[in-house]
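job 3f2a | input accepted
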Amino acid sequence: MARIALALALAWSVALAPQSQDEAELAQKIRSLILQLKDRSLHLKKKAEEDLFLMGAPALPVLRVEESRMGPGELKRKVGIIIKRIERVQQKAIASGATLVVTLEAKDQLITEVLAELQKRTSVSIEHKGIPADAVTSLDLKGVSLWEAVDQICSTNGKLSWDVSEKGIFIRRETYVRPFMATVSGYLLLIRPFLRFPPAPGTGDRDYVRGDAYVAGPPGAVPVAHFMSYEALADDKGTNLLASPAGLQPRPMIGEYRFMAAPDMTHPVYKPVFEFLDASPNRGATKVKTCKGTVTFQAMLEVDRRLDIRGVNLKKGAKESGFGVTVEVETLETTGGRLRMELAITDTRLPERRQNRITYPQNRGKIILRDAAGQEIPADVDQIGKSVPGPSKPDELPRDETTRFKVTAALKDAKLDMIEFWECTAFEETKIPFDFKDVPIKRTK
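job 3f2a | predicted structure (445 res):
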């Protein structure tokens, strides 16, 4: 059998634990260690605490159930601390891409078996129905990303190609062509052919080009921002695309209050990369001969509750401010077991963003609805129209911008008691440098 292991930090390696371990045996061990937390011996208490922590992510479901059954007291507090410690390690490993870094050794092993094990270990779906049943591979890779491992398998075979989507990796039976790819840790940058568009309003008779790049990363990672900075960009006719404006004059997107997506442990992150590019290529250009720069990907590490509106204060017209944001409840209706609400979120941090030269979109926060018992009420949140800049003096940029959202939820027998507003307060930043030659330019209609 192929020997495959995740090359991660110690705590995360332990957190993965042998997947064949019997769940009942694991649960019993966790409960025994919880009882040991009440021992009179300080040494045994500390050892039980560390043993529970080192069990990592597989222990979380049992720990959460046991903690929920406990009454207030020291034991509940200790178990809660252990849960948070494991969650922090788990989130750090995911955000940094460590969960997609693998060590792989295989000698004349069936490719289908190697890919199945990679899928099992990384939770990234790998569709490989087109691979011949008898195709084998021999590899010895240490501490490489999942993407590099799959690319190595396909390139070594020579008659397999691969690609990525929001569903995962899929492999086709066709002649291998290396993609324009760069990796750092468990993150992948894929650059597709540049897109060439016909003249548009403001460009006169000039065509213009746009990049088409994607970042893929670990399941469970929550993107905060992802953007591209070009250092050099020139077509095969010698045109400097960073100094040949098409005349589009794009408006910097420094507002647009955006909410983060929920963590998805079943699919990899797959996001188009944001870029500012106003470039007109030579009419006869068919390639971007020089394509060099850096993609920055920021993944959420921690979120904190910033504001809440609760109890009798939760009504139409309610308003709360703090941490550079104001939230107003414009409408609120709870009839027929359904919640319908419209919120206006005014962000007053635009001057700070300009000062820090942050002109790319960011996902800042999330909304959580709770009932009187403190239980979360699942909700759908949709943006209403575009953000509206606040008033400003002549020749000055606005200091704030308001974005409106529609919130809907099924209340069933629950009663809405609180709206919480959380924001990302710490993130893991990964920079992916790239330097490609002869990236094709694809003409669009």
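job 3f2a | Helices lie at 10-16, 23-36, 42-55, 60-69, 74-96, 111-122, 146-157, 350-355.
job 3f2a | closed
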